[in-house]
């Protein structure tokens, strides 16, 4: 069980670093996203200078929200796990699951299937330890 919890903590810290990159390294992150979505790291610049600043704001807000979400998940994993491991596991599964379905569904509906595929990487990083943790919880209770 300990390995799964540590894995989740490392992944969550990794997501926080990624989210901070959205705010602190916007040009680098924009280039990576543009290469992913448009096969061209300069695509957003073609939209116009005013829009580039707005996109930077949106990425910054997204990064801030992701950091807040990850801080909450870390607090749950670090402080509440010992008292209610099954409840914390359920919260983590629900939180990650809702994010994936809503974010990926919206991405597909708006024509950005690549973003839904990108989300799969994060889902796998969380799903492996969550499945392992769920199996550990079931084996200790039954």
In DSSP terms, counting alpha (H) and pi (I) runs of 4 or more, how many helices? 5
Coarse structural class: mainly alpha
Give the overall average pLDDT: 88
What Rg, in angstroms, do the CA atoms define? Answer: 17 Å
Overall 3D form: elongated
* Strand residue content: under 5%
Uncertain stretches: none
Order of SSEs: HHHHH
Strands, count: 0
Spatial separation of the terminal alpha carbons = 16 Å
Largest sheet: none
Number of domains: 1
Helical residue percent band: over 70%
Q: Could you explain how this protein is built, in words?
A:
- With 142 residues, the chain is an all-alpha fold.
- The chain has one domain (2-141).
- It has helices at residues 2-24, 26-38, 49-80, 85-109, 113-141.
- The longest helix has 32 residues, at 49-80.
């Amino acid at each position: 069980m300990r390995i799964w919890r540590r894995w989740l903590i490392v992944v969550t810290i990794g997501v926080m670093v990624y989210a901070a990159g959205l705010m602190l390294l916007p040009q680098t992150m924009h280039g990576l996203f543009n290469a992913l979505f448009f096969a061209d790291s300069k695509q957003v610049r073609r939209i116009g200078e005013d829009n580039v600043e707005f996109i930077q704001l949106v990425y910054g807000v997204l990064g801030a929200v992701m950091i807040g979400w990850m801080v909450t998940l870390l607090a749950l994993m670090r402080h509440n796990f010992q008292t209610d491991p099954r409840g914390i596991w359920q919260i983590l599964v629900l939180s990650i699951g809702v994010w994936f379905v809503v974010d990926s569904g919206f991405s597909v509906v708006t024509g950005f299937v690549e973003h839904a595929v990108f989300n799969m990487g994060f889902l796998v990083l969380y799903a492996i330890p969550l499945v392992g943790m769920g199996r550990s919880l079931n084996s200790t209770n039954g």
